[in-house]
Amino acid sequence: MAIIEPVRQDTQHPRHIKKYSISLRLWHWVNTIVISGSLLTVLINSTITDERSVSALIKNELKNAGATVSDEQAGSVAHALGDSVWNIHIYFGYVLVGLLLFRLVLEFFQLADQKFIRKMKSAYRQFQSSKKERELAKHELTVKVIYAAFYILLITMAVTGLFLAFEDLLAPFKSIRHTVKEVHGFCMYLILAFIFVHLAGVFIAERKDNKGIVSDMINGGGNYQ
């Protein structure tokens, strides 16, 4: 069993399939869309709307059309185009913050056996006490630790993103803006790494003993194996 491979089995009841509440499933898929959209805006701004290349393109096209603009004018247009994409990125960020708050609140209202922290503690206790299902518990605990790291990354992204979005209101902290921006960008790469690992794990699971794990996240799971 690959360490990144999520499992369908409930560690407390190995003959049962894990259950996922409709709220958690909704959060999962909406979060997937929002993070994908946010990353897409970064990709667009670093490639298609890159200020230097767009500025040169604008200047050349206008020149071919018989108009003449300065480098500064072309740069202003390119900058405005990039800003429009970043505005979309910011909106995605606001939604992501809302989803994160929703997930934190959901943790308090989930059924006891579906709470993330409870599952993590349960896997740890089972790993410590049970020899029979120790391998399954160890694997589940490892996966949960990876997910916990992902949640920490989301929180860091949300906090640093809000700082950058409201930097005018946080003028007294202007000296740390560069550091905050660097942390925000670095977390993005870590989230990309998590997405790759998560998708690889799901792919492996679907190809091996845990076929149906994607269906469980859509339909809720909870059946017997």
Structural class: mainly alpha
- In whole angstroms, the N-to-C terminal distance is 17 Å
Q: Main sheet, how many strands, which sense, barrel?
A: none
Low-confidence stretches: none
Number of strands: 0
Question: Overall 3D geometry?
Answer: elongated
What's the pLDDT, averaged over the residues? 84
Descriptive notes:
By secondary structure, the chain is mainly α. It has helices at 22-46, 51-64, 71-109, 116-129, 134-165, 177-207, 213-219. The chain folds into 2 domains: 17-110; 115-208. It starts with 21 loop residues before the first helix and ends in a 6-residue tail after the last helix. The relative contact order is 0.17.
Summarize the SSE layout with pairings.
Elements: H1 22-46, H2 51-64, H3 71-109, H4 116-129, H5 134-165, H6 177-207, H7 213-219
Features:
225 residues, 72% helix, 2 domains, mainly alpha
Structure, briefly:
This protein is an all-alpha fold and 225 residues long. 72% of the residues lie in helices and 0% in strands.
